[in-house]
Write a structure and sequence with these properties.
14 strands
Length: 216
């Protein structure tokens, strides 16, 4: 009976919840004084639920292939702020232009729903991340597109508990989401941004603790 219970527990999905420390960066180009622009959010919300075969500890032996998974993440549009290369705030005017072009008044969040996760290879060392291919639906300004991107997932076990550090990036065209590039005067110059932007993220999640067994 104990062996059966242990096997059943091992087959149960594991849930991870978003934790502080995440970051989302949007990198773009422009023809203004600065050849590039940066926008960041210091918060990524959401959750990830994984099934058998997913590495929950560093250096864990795994078999490449598809992982049973479901997950969703989001950032609030108003959490995005333009920054300099060193991370210092850039321009509140640029922030307001960003909110306007992302139609924040109507669509408060940028959302992503994970549909598929495939483990490509085990890490080369215990401290290296696992490499996955991911497929999911990205929604920006109310428009949803399916995207594919590689992600690196590093399980961490320490005094803070079990968590995941997930990193990835992808280049997209904003016009695919019906978001027009910026083309207007701001401060003392005229800014016209490019259509392509690069999304770079680091998402931190902590394992949700199983509920305590009811006292007999």
């Amino acid at each position: 009976m104990l062996a059966t219970a242990a096997l059943q527990a091992a087959d149960q999905p594991i849930t991870y919840i978003a934790r502080p420390g995440s970051k989302m960066r949007i990198e773009g180009t422009a023809n203004a004084i600065h050849t590039s622009w940066l926008i960041e959010s210091q918060f990524i919300g959401g959750m990830l639920q994984v099934g058998p075969g997913f590495p929950t500890e560093p250096g864990q032996a795994v078999t490449p292939g598809k992982i049973e998974v479901s997950g969703k993440s989001f950032i609030r549009v108003r959490s995005l702020q333009s920054v300099e290369a060193d991370g210092k705030p850039y321009s509140e005017a640029m922030d307001e232009i960003t909110y306007e072009h992302l139609k924040e008044a109507q669509f408060k969040q940028i959302e992503y729903k994970l549909a598929e996760l495939t483990l490509k290879e085990a890490p080369k060392s215990k401290d290296a991340p696992y490499v996955f291919d991911s497929t999911g639906d990205l929604t920006i300004a109310g428009v949803t597109k399916t995207i594919k991107m590689p992600v690196n997932i590093l399980p961490v076990v320490d005094s803070k508990g079990n968590r995941l550090e997930i990193k990835g990036n992808i280049t997209i065209k904003m016009t695919d989401f019906k978001v027009e590039p910026v083309d207007k005067n701001i401060l003392v110059t005229h800014i016209k941004t490019g259509d392509e932007v690069k999304l770079v993220f680091e998402w931190i999640l902590g394992q949700r603790k199983a509920p305590a067994a009811a006292a007999k």
